[in-house]
Amino acid sequence: MLTPGVMASWHAMRVMAPPPADAPSSACRPFSGDRAGFAIGEGAAALVLESEAHAAARGAEAAPFVLAGYATNCDGTHITNPDSAGQVRVMRAALRDAGIEASDVGHINAHGTATSAGDAAEAASIREVFGKGAPVSATKAIHGHVLGGGGAIELIAALRALARETLPPIANLQTPDAAFDLDFVQGEAREAKGIRYALSNSFAFGGTNAVIVAGRASER
Questions:
Q1: DSSP code of residue 189
Q2: Residue pair 31/71 in contact by the 8 Å Cβ criterion
Q3: CA distances (Å), origin 118, targets 26, 92, 180
Q4: Who has the most CB within 10 Å: 14, 80, 157, 193?
Q5: Residue 201's CB: how many other CB atoms inside 10 A?
């Protein structure tokens, strides 16, 4: 990702944040009133999915977490502008697949690109599905936007939040956009004792949306 051609392409689309001269690490500011775009990153992650029966057959210890539900759709509304209605549909579909209610989700790991249009659409869709009940984090301000690797990396962040019962704050978020009426985790990590489910959003160009719900194995 970090090559001159790729960087120039994203810059031409005006979605890359200009790094502040005095604090370049604060360039990406998800859901902030002064957000200006994302920072490109590089990285990868992998997760192993295994059925309970397969794990038991090989004598493995029971995994603490499960893939509770997932959903994907492609609203096809616009090649670059996100569609809030499509995001609402995919989040609700993931909840249905998990067999849970929106109120059961104790943490949302947002796609959170820090672009003007992207954050506005996602904030509206989260508000529509969850109201102000689920705390929202976003991690791209830390690891950058790694495109195809983002979903896996951010799901791992959501799993760590479940494991530690602690929600990560949104880095560089000082003043949330006044138009976003959500419970953002900001400033410092937040304790979340008894958290049962976490939801992770991944929204891409062309209206391709994917949502995963992770839960504690004890809840299934």
A1: -
A2: no
A3: 18, 19, 12
A4: 157
A5: 25
Class of domain 4-219: alpha beta
The pLDDT assigned to 136 comes to: 98
What is the pLDDT, as a whole number, of residue 220? 66
Contacts of 60 (CB under 8 A, 6+ apart): 50
**Residues paired with residue 16 on neighbouring β-strands, in sequence order:** 38
- Please give the pLDDT value at position 186: 96
Residues of the chain with pLDDT under 70: 220
Q: According to the model, what pLDDT value does residue 170 have? A: 98
According to the model, what pLDDT value does residue 168 have?
97
d(CA 78, CA 94): 22
Return the exposure string of 180-193: e unless at least 16 CB atoms fall within 10 Å of the residue's CB, then b.
bebebbbeeebebe
CA distance 70 to 210: 8
Containing H/E element for 7?
helix 4-12
If residue 108 lies in a helix (H) or strand (E), which one and from where to where? strand 105-109
The radius of gyration of the chain's CA atoms, rounded to the nearest angstrom, is 17
Distance CA 81, CA 174 (A): 26
| Domain segments of the chain as ranges | 4-219
Residue with tokens 């410092």, as numbered in its chain: 188
What's the pLDDT at 219?
73
DSSP tag of 31:
T
Of 213, 219, 216, 220, the residue nearest 108 (C-alpha): 213
- What are the backbone angles phi and psi of residue 190, rounded to the nearest 5°? -120, 130
Q: Among all chains, which residue has been given the structure tokens 């790729």?
A: 6
